[in-house]
Amino acid sequence: MKQQIVLTDDDLLARGNDRYVFQHPHDSRLLIKTVIPGIAKFNSKLREVYRDLKECKPRNETDSLFMQKIEGLVETNKGPGQVIVKEQDEQGGIAKTLYQLAQDNELDSLKLQKLNVFLAWFVGTDVIINSLHCKNIVYAWDSARHEYRFKVIDGFGDKTFFQLSKLSTAIRDKNKIKCLRRMLRDLNRLQ
Ligand SMILES: Nc1ncnc2c1ncn2[C@@H]1O[C@H](COP(=O)(O)OP(=O)(O)OP(=O)(O)O)[C@@H](O)[C@H]1O
Ligand SMILES: [Mg+2]
Questions:
Q1: Cβ of residue 48 lying under 6 Å from some atom of ligand 1
Q2: Is 84 in the pocket of ligand 1 (CB under 6 A)?
Q3: DSSP letter at 36?
Q4: Is there an atom of ligand 1 within 6 Å of 24 CB?
Q5: Residue 6 DSSP one-character state
Q6: pTM of the entire predicted model
Q7: Are 49 and 40 in contact (CB under 8 A)?
Q8: What is the enclosing helix (H) or strand (E) of 48?
Q9: Are 74 and 83 in contact (CB under 8 A)?
Q10: What pLDDT score does 63 carry?
């Protein structure tokens, strides 16, 4: 059996509605995401842990600039965990979400311009993204290119039973517009 990684409360960096996000205890560049025990959607979120491996896949080099990177799966004391590259700010802290930036009034014209670049990518990509809310977008420092970029860190794939957006570009486009509208409405409310 593979060695189990032990995660403690001290390693906890963030949490969403469904997942805990831990610092990887053996590698400062990585995170481990596990499903929060006891949530109503526990079993479907557990399936997502495996499904994301397939769905969170860039189709080309540009996609990989705008998406979080999954390195693989590990066994942890908190259940199966996704090993993910930690998006960081220039100082090496965990990257801020678009939600945090808006709340802290930090969306200046440069960041808004970068948000436009990100949204242009979102509109054109073939990667299916089902949930583009402001906490699923982070402002990340790219040390290789010496620039910040907004990136999506959650919400990959089509959750409908028949995965309609895989069959039809029209449905995919309609879903994208819905996602985009919702995100921009939330962002306006936060500002
Ligand atoms: N790759 C990453 N790099 C930096 N921070 C991240 C990364 N992935 C997640 N986070 C942080 O952890 C938080 C929760 O992660 P994530 O969105 O994956 O959890 P979730 O529970 O599935 O979310 P939701 O509430 O949308 O269901 C994010 O809002 C973000 O602050
Ligand atoms: Mg999320």
A1: no
A2: yes
A3: P
A4: no
A5: P
A6: 0.96
A7: no
A8: helix 42-55
A9: yes
A10: 98
Closest CA to 131 of 179, 63, 174, 72: 179
Ligand 2 mean position, distance from CA 150 (Å): 14
Phi then psi dihedrals of residue 141, to 5 deg: -85, 130
Q: Which ligand is nearest to the CA of 100?
A: 1
Ligand whose nearest atom lies closest to the CA of 71: 1
**By the 8 A CB rule, do 67 and 127 touch?**
yes
Beta bridge partners of residue 76, listed in sequence order: 5, 79
Whether 73 has a pLDDT exceeding 90, the answer reads yes
What pLDDT is recorded for position 114? 98
The answer to whether 156 and 52 have CB atoms below 8 angstroms apart is: yes
> Residue 138, Cα to own-chain centre: how many angstroms?
8
DSSP-derived 3-state class of residue 97: strand
What residue type is 56 in one-letter code? Answer: C
Check whether 58 has a pLDDT greater than 80: yes
| 130 C-beta closer than 6 A to ligand 1 | no
Domain range summary for the chain, segments of one domain joined by +: 9-190
